[in-house]
Amino acid sequence: MTELRYGIEDRPEHWWQSLLFGWQHTLVDISPFVLPLALAAALGMDAAATAELISFGLIGMGVATLIQTTFGNRLPIIQGPSATLAGTLAPVATQVGGAAMWGAVFVGAIAETAIGLSGLLGRLRRAFPPVVAGVVVLTIGLSLGRLAISLSVGDGSAPNLALAAGVVALVLLLQKFGADRWGGLLARAAIDIAIWVEGLGVGGALGLVDWQLVASRPWLQLPRPFPYGGPGFGWEFGIAATLAVAAGYIGSMVESVGDYVATAAVADEELTETHVSRGITAEGIGCMLAASVGGMPCTSYTQNVGIIAATGIASRHVVRVAAVILLAYGLCPKFVAMLVALPRTVLGGVFLLV
C-alpha cells in the first residue's frame, strides 16, 4: 500500500488537484455502466432508455455519496449501484415487472435506514474481528477480480490484450517514476492519466472507440423526479418482490461493513460502531433518493478503497468532489457516452489493479 499522503480531513493544496483526484475516483467505477445493462434488458428497455437509466444512476450515485461523506459515516467512500442487489433486481423485474421491482427497492431502502438507525449492525461490529472482515473484503475482491480479468481479456485479440497490458504498465511506471515529478502529481494521478492516454489516445488510434455513440448523445439532460412512477402513482408493493429484493439488501449491507473496515484501515482511521450505524443509515437514505430519480440502489464501492490504497489519497473532500463530478456525468449524456465508448479492456486493466 502507498504511504498515506492525505488523511480523511486533509485537502489537496490546489483546487485543480482536488478536481483531478476526484475525477480519478469516478473513472474506475465500471459498475454504473455495466449493472444497468442487465436491469435494462430485464425491463425490455431500448438503447435510448438504457442510456437514460445509466444517467439516472450516476445522479443517484452523486447524491448518495454526498450524503455518506457529509452526514453518514464521513469516510471517503463512493456509493454506487450494488452488484449484489442487481443480482436480485433483474430476475424480479423479469418475473413481476418494473413497477413491483421499484416498489420493493423503496421498501428495502426504508428497512435499511431503520436497521442503521437501530444501531444493530454497529453493535454486531464487535462480532467481526479483522480476520472475518478481511475474508469478506477478499471475497468481494475475488468476485470483482473475475470481472476485471474478463474485461481485460475481452475477445482475446492482440489489440485488446495490448491495451490492457499497456494501461497497467503505464500506471505502474507513473507511480514509480512520477513520485518526484511536479510534487508527486504524476504518481497520484497515474490511473486518471493512464485511462485517457490508453483509452482515448491509443484506443482511438486503433479504431476501438465508438465515436458515433458519443456524437449521438445530447450535451445536457435535466433529471426528473420519479421517472418510472412512484409510491401511489405507478409503483406496486408485493410481498414476493419485497422479500426477494430484501435478500439483496442484506448482502449489500454485509458488503458495506467489510468496505468500511477496509476504508478505515487504508485511511488510518479507527472504525467505530458509530461509523457502521451512520454508514448503513446513510446508504438507506441514499437508496431511497436514488430510486426517486430513477437510479439503482447504492452501496459502498470496493474499487475506490483500492484507489486510496494505490494513491495514498484518503481525503473525504476529494471524494465529495468526485460526487459532484458524478452528478455532472448524469446531467451530461455525451460524457457518459464517452466513458461507455472507451475500450472495455482499458477499464478492465485498471479495475484489475485496484
Q: How does this structure look, described?
A:
The chain has helices at 15-27, 31-43, 47-70, 83-96, 98-118, 120-124, 130-153, 158-177, 185-188, 190-205, 211-216, 239-266, 273-292, 302-311, 316-331, 333-341, 344-353; strands at 79-81, 298-300. It has a two-stranded antiparallel sheet with strand order 1-2. It starts with 14 loop residues before the first helix and ends with a helix. The model has no long low-confidence stretch (mean pLDDT 82). It contains 17 helices and two strands. By secondary structure, the chain is an all-alpha fold.
The helix/strand order is HHHEHHHHHHHHHHEHHHH
Q: Which stretches of 5+ consecutive residues score pLDDT under 50?
A: none
Contiguous helical run count:
17
Q: How many beta-strand elements?
A: 2
Instruction: State the end-to-end CA separation.
Output: 11 Å
- Quaternary state reads single chain
Give the C-alpha Rg. Answer: 19 Å
Features:
single chain; 354 residues; mainly alpha; two-stranded antiparallel sheet; 17 helices; 2 strands; globular
